[in-house]
């Protein structure tokens, strides 16, 4: 099985996007960074802060309807303590999207006041929206714009070039392609990005991913796992720290496959099919509302 600690993912268009982002920063008043509420830490590109410098930033924890609401509240409080503006949103249901404009205006209140004193009342507020692939960035923009102005597709890297989008209430938005970073030094970050589909499945073995995900869920959300697959979580081997271990996860994967009837000739369990099912159902929100990392300890 592949090791997440060795994942490197930096296609040419992402390197180009990073340069475009830096060169266009002077054109905007604020940066809006969209993250996945299920993995707020892992889905934040660590290079964004360095690129944006002192530019005002608003962090959106998107896909909040798929995340554990208690954990999301912990993240909002964490960002508040760090002095970072943050808002939990969901582009599908529209949750808290109506709070986006007021929050951004509050973030830029001092700048807006300066414009007013200079006779620039009504000047458009320009923002750059950034985020790694598959955090729902294009869907969020479409929700704001009220029309499908940004191309939406459930695969990494589909938004290729920068584009300006005119919004309501005097806002203009510069959409940027999703940007990942050169290497995931933290194996957990690489795994969590793969769980959510931010990294293509061809990068990591799907059975390995499913095993790691099942191990995590069995510890933090055992009731959701039992409810969805009707499997027993008793008499499981202990999880192993070794990247190649996944003994507990593989046992769970086999139980899922057996329960779903994923059998091949000879009665063996088709664990690859079971793995794809687990990952697809997690990404589709069918396992329930859950989060894969908390502010501390992650």
TrEMBL record:
InterPro entries recorded: G_CP_dom, GTP-bd, GTP-bd_ortho_bundle_sf, GTP-bd_ribosome_bgen, GTPase_MTG1, P-loop_NTPase
Protein's name in the database: Ribosome biogenesis GTPase A
CP-type G domain: residues covered: 17-182
GO biological process terms held by the UniProt record: translation
Biological role: Required for a late step of 50S ribosomal subunit assembly. Has GTPase activity.
Residue positions binding GTP: 62-65, 134-139, 178
Protein family according to the UniProt entry: Belongs to the TRAFAC class YlqF/YawG GTPase family. MTG1 subfamily.
UniProt keywords, alphabetically: Cytoplasm, GTP-binding, Nucleotide-binding
One Pfam family linked to the record: MMR_HSR1
One Gene Ontology term of the molecular function aspect: GTPase activity
Protein location: Cytoplasm
One Gene Ontology cellular component annotation held by this UniProt entry: cytoplasm
Keyword Cytoplasm appears in the UniProt entry: yes
């Amino acid at each position: 099985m592949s090791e997440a600690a060795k994942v490197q993912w930096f296609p040419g268009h992402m390197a180009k996007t990073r340069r475009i982002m830096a060169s266009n920063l002077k054109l905007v008043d604020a940066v809006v960074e969209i993250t996945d509420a299920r993995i707020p830490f892992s889905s934040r590109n660590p290079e964004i802060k360095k690129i944006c410098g002192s530019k005002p930033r608003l962090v959106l924890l998107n896909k909040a309807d798929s995340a554990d609401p208690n954990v999301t509240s912990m993240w909002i409080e964490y960002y508040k303590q760090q002095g970072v503006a943050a808002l939990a949103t969901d582009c599908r249901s529209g949750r808290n999207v109506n709070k986006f404009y007021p929050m951004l205006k509050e973030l830029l209140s001092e700048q807006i006041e300066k414009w007013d004193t200079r006779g620039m009342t009504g000047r458009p507020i320009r923002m750059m929206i950034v985020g790694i692939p598959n955090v729902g960035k294009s869907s969020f923009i479409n929700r704001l714009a009220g029309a499908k102005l940004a191309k939406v597709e459930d695969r990494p890297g589909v938004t290729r070039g920068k584009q300006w989008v005119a919004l309501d209430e005097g806002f203009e938005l510069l959409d940027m392609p999703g940007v990942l970073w050169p290497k995931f030094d933290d194996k957990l970050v690489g795994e969590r990005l793969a769980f959510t589909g931010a990294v293509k499945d061809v990068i990591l073995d799907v059975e390995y991913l499913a095993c790691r995900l099942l191990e995590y869920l069995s510890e933090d959300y055992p009731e959701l796992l039992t409810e969805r697959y009707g499997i027993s979580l008793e008499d499981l081997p202990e999880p192993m720290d070794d990247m190649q271990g996944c003994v507990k996860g593989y046992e769970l994967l086999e139980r899922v496959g057996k329960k779903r009837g994923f059998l091949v000739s000879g009665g063996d369990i088709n664990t690859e099919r079971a793995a794809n099912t687990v990952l697809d159902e997690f990404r589709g929100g069918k396992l329930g509302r859950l989060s894969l990392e908390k502010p501390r300890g992650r």
